[in-house]
Design brief:
- There is one protein chain.
- The chain is mainly alpha-helical.
- The chain is built from three helices and no strands.
- The N and C termini lie far apart (96 Å).
Length: 113
């Protein structure tokens, strides 16, 4: 008599439902959206920077969790981090340029003694 071959045990993982999957993809999508919008309005000084900071945090979380939001596996979280980094860099550069051009120093009047 031949015994049936033993099947490998299927690893148990947290239950994946369409709702949890969509919520996870939403982190990466929100990072991309906030990064894109923050980069588009980088000149609007604290608003554009705040959008980029929140988008950067969401993008880093989605990268750490390995979430890919694209239909074909594109890494939308990475694109969000890239857009947010560009937006933050542009925002800081424009702020420093305006501060230097109109106030005469990069430190402002706080340190002028």
């Amino acid at each position: 008599m031949v015994e049936p071959a033993s099947t490998a045990a299927v690893p148990t993982s947290p239950k994946r439902t369409p709702v949890t999957h969509t919520t996870r993809r939403g982190l990466a999508t929100a990072s991309f959206s906030l990064g894109f919008w923050g980069t588009a309005v980088f000149w609007w000084y604290p608003f554009g920077m705040a959008l980029c900071v929140v988008g950067l945090a969401l993008g880093l979380v989605s990268l750490a969790l390995g979430i890919r939001a694209g239909k074909d596996g594109e890494n939308i979280g990475l694109l969000g981090v890239i857009f947010c980094s560009i937006g933050l860099g542009l925002s800081l550069a424009v702020y420093r340029f305006v501060q230097y051009a109109f106030e005469g120093s990069l430190t402002g009047s706080l340190y002028d003694g």
